[in-house]
């Protein structure tokens, strides 16, 4: 637990997760634009084709999902710098400029306004995500070091804050941008390709291959649920480790889905969240409508509405599921079973691959399946609720029997205590009359 807590509190993993959450509105916008573009209704698609509207859906997609690495270069640097109590916005801005410095560009024809430049979007989306994260780490950490050492231009008191921040950023900005320019030039001169190609080939592609298998997904699920069992936020710890890999896979998945091309992955963040959605909903239903224990009945009725929106904390800490060995087996294992089933059904072609859509937090189960691009995924989620019900039922009955017995014993002890007090009161009344 101590090791997992330390991992979960790691400043750099937290900056990745928080940075990813910062760009969530952009990825959700891209997801909705993609769904509206490919909505499988023939009359709707005929209308889109007739009026050539697909190009307008591509605009938000290109500048959100296909621009993800640029956004992450800013957001991760911002959150990392803020964790050191320095100016996060300036650190993020310098990181984003550094990312563009490392990105290959093409020269166009000379026009009336000078030389034209264009940046292919190859490295601006999923394929450049790891470069964006690494640039964010290096530039933000350098910015923090220079700032903390006091190697900045300080303006006198009374100078407006925005002007003071601009001057204080000059020295770290010059150092960081110059360093990345020299690095980019060195790689280009020596015909080594680009920093993006090097990082993608050495780090991102191998990690993606490693993270794409069902084995890694099940390991993440088992570790996350085990940590939850011991009272730690398992998803915050485990998903923080795999987030760069899975988010990059989702971005590539969504780009392919939007373009109508074959999707490159089965797993990813969207796969994990889609097929673990509704994990505690059957248990909440059982607590509310099938429990003999009054405590569980009350808790179930309180927990059922949040459970519909995939919020399980009331049950995790209210049942509790934490350190509850009667419910440990389904709590830890059920998600892994259904993830494995979904993976092999997708591999066999029974289920389509998820579209990589980033759904908003609290999206109800089944609705989230439809948002991944197919009714078949929603149908699997529906069937999975009954599988989860069957998996929970035996263990729920054991836990409910234990809770009911505890309540019965408490009521019996309370009744005995009340009878004892009544007896003592009756015995004391005659002696009181004699005394009088």
TrEMBL record:
<dbReference type="Pfam" id="PF02378">
    <property type="entry name" value="PTS_EIIC"/>
</dbReference>
<dbReference type="InterPro" id="IPR004501">
    <property type="entry name" value="PTS_EIIC_3"/>
</dbReference>
<dbReference type="GO" id="GO:0005886">
    <property type="term" value="C:plasma membrane"/>
</dbReference>
<keyword id="KW-0812">Transmembrane</keyword>
<keyword id="KW-1133">Transmembrane helix</keyword>
<comment type="function">
    <text>The phosphoenolpyruvate-dependent sugar phosphotransferase system (PTS), a major carbohydrate active -transport system, catalyzes the phosphorylation of incoming sugar substrates concomitant with their translocation across the cell membrane.</text>
</comment>
<dbReference type="InterPro" id="IPR004796">
    <property type="entry name" value="PTS_IIC_cello"/>
</dbReference>
<feature type="transmembrane region" description="Helical">
    <location>
        <begin position="167"/>
        <end position="190"/>
    </location>
</feature>
<keyword id="KW-0762">Sugar transport</keyword>
<dbReference type="GO" id="GO:0008982">
    <property type="term" value="F:protein-N(PI)-phosphohistidine-sugar phosphotransferase activity"/>
</dbReference>
<feature type="transmembrane region" description="Helical">
    <location>
        <begin position="325"/>
        <end position="345"/>
    </location>
</feature>
<dbReference type="InterPro" id="IPR051088">
    <property type="entry name" value="PTS_Sugar-EIIC/EIIB"/>
</dbReference>
<feature type="transmembrane region" description="Helical">
    <location>
        <begin position="21"/>
        <end position="43"/>
    </location>
</feature>
<feature type="transmembrane region" description="Helical">
    <location>
        <begin position="125"/>
        <end position="146"/>
    </location>
</feature>
<feature type="transmembrane region" description="Helical">
    <location>
        <begin position="269"/>
        <end position="290"/>
    </location>
</feature>
<keyword id="KW-1003">Cell membrane</keyword>
<keyword id="KW-0813">Transport</keyword>
<feature type="transmembrane region" description="Helical">
    <location>
        <begin position="88"/>
        <end position="105"/>
    </location>
</feature>
<feature type="transmembrane region" description="Helical">
    <location>
        <begin position="377"/>
        <end position="396"/>
    </location>
</feature>
<dbReference type="GO" id="GO:0009401">
    <property type="term" value="P:phosphoenolpyruvate-dependent sugar phosphotransferase system"/>
</dbReference>
<keyword id="KW-0472">Membrane</keyword>
<feature type="transmembrane region" description="Helical">
    <location>
        <begin position="63"/>
        <end position="81"/>
    </location>
</feature>
<dbReference type="InterPro" id="IPR003352">
    <property type="entry name" value="PTS_EIIC"/>
</dbReference>
<feature type="transmembrane region" description="Helical">
    <location>
        <begin position="237"/>
        <end position="257"/>
    </location>
</feature>
<dbReference type="GO" id="GO:1901264">
    <property type="term" value="P:carbohydrate derivative transport"/>
</dbReference>
<protein>
    <recommendedName>
        <fullName>Permease IIC component</fullName>
    </recommendedName>
</protein>
<feature type="domain" description="PTS EIIC type-3">
    <location>
        <begin position="1"/>
        <end position="395"/>
    </location>
</feature>
